[in-house]
Fold:
Amino acid sequence: MIGHTVLRFEEVSSTNDRAKELLERPDADGLAVLALCQTKGRGRLGRSWFSPDSSGLYLSIILKRTFGGNAPMLLCPAASLAAALAVEKLSGPYVYIKWPNDLIVNGKKVGGILIEQIGGAYIAGIGINLNTDPSGFPEDIKGKATSLMAESGKIWDRDVFMKEYFALFDHLLSKLSGGAGGEILEMIKARSFTIGKIVDVSDGGRSFHGEAVGFEGDGSLLLNASDGKMINVKSGEIK
Ligand code: BT5
Structure:
């Protein structure tokens, strides 16, 4: 059961790092780490995650179980979809998912997912700006980031949100284990901020330009490139 135990901290460097230290616990699978503040919150590729005190959700969930087939690659879509569904279940705004891991409300980033693999275990990091005041965002994300409070006009209760998230993520993980990853991708496609758009994608070394047309079974992005070729981008960034 996801969230069977929640370890709460006032301040950590990163909840993913704290979770990493707990992997050997016998009850590690499903265990969650929650912090009120992160001093070194992380995004992908060494980027930082702005984590001011008490205003956001900074959560990591340990998954120490066997996933077959494409399921490990679909953890990020499942974790993102659970967040979008939790927001809406709690009468929040509609959440788009920008491939591969951004949660978008009204065109701005409200949250992000960071999946890390350590040996045979995974840590799902979930960062969501619940009650963050947009005027406090650092310059580099001001205008590009938002919070649920700013978009909905109400205060979001961290514990209520987390409980909803656990139930939804648990449900989606059961789907993944049952081989229904395609269903998750269909649901992501329906709320994708990416599909149907002309985009520039970089996957580290290379850049591509074209129309994002769909997903492969492993969650990679299918791009109808400007030179007419169909390209499969495993992971990367939409510019
Ligand atoms: C992400 O990375 O979007 C994944 C963020 C995951 C954060 C959670 S918090 C709990 C757990 N513990 C951690 O240490 N991390 C996870 P990425 O796609 O690389 O996006 C990072 C970029 O988003 C930054 O370079 C900024 O441009 C932007 N950004 C940083 N903080 C933000 C915030 N609070 N709200 C919106 N955008 C932000």
